Amino acid sequence: MKKKVGLLGGTFNPPHLGHLLLAEQVLERAQLDEIRFLPNRVPPHKQVDERVSVEQRLFMLKEAIKDNPKFSIEMIELEREGPSYTYETIKCLTQKEKNIDFSFIIGGDMIEYLPKWFRIDELQTMVRFIGVNRPSYSQVSPYDVKMIKIPTIEISSSFIRESIQKGQSIRYLVPDNVYRFIKEEKLYE
Predict the structure, then answer these.
(1) Contact 100, 3 (CB under 8 A)
(2) Tens digits of per-residue pLDDT, 118-127?
(3) 79 close to 73: Cβ distance less than 8 angstroms
(4) Nearest Cα to 36, choosing from 23, 22, 21, 55?
(5) 160: CB partners within 8 A, 6+ apart
(6) Rounded to whole angstroms, how far apart are CA atoms 182 and 12?
(7) How many domains does the chain have?
C-alpha cells in the first residue's frame, strides 16, 4: 500500500498557527501518513518579501514544525531557480518517489485560481487536490477537489508582516519559537 503524503505549499513568510492548524486537520481528516511543507522560492502568483532571506524563512518553518513527527519540509522548490510551478514539482516528486500517493493541499483562494494554474489539466492527472474551506472564497471548481471542512482562523502572513510594521503584537499568531526569532532578528520591521 502506498504511503499517503500531503503537500502544503507556500512562502511561509512567516509560518503561522493557521498553517499548522490546517496541516494537522488535513493530516487527520484525509487520513494521510504525513504532511510535507513545501516552501517555494519564487511563487508564480505573488511577490516574496525580499527583506527576509530564504534561509530565514526555512529556519522559521523548521522551528514551527519541529514538535510534530508527522510534519517535514520538502526542499525541491528551494533547490531550483525560477518560478515554483506545482506541475514541475509534482512531476519531479512522482517520478522520484513512485511509492507515494501525493495530495496537494489548497485553500479556498487557490481553488478559485486553479483554472489559471500552469498545465492544470495535466497536473490534475498526477496529484489529488485537497481543498479546505476559507471564508469569503468559493469552493466550486471545474477540477476534482476533495473538500475538507476544518476550523478556520483568519491569520495570514501578510497580516503578520503588516502588524509588525505597525508595531503591533503578533504573539499567539505564530509559534513561540518563531515569535522569538522574528523579534531577535527584527524581521519585517
Answers:
(1) yes
(2) 999 999 999 9
(3) no
(4) 23
(5) 14, 16, 170, 173, 174, 188
(6) 13
(7) 1
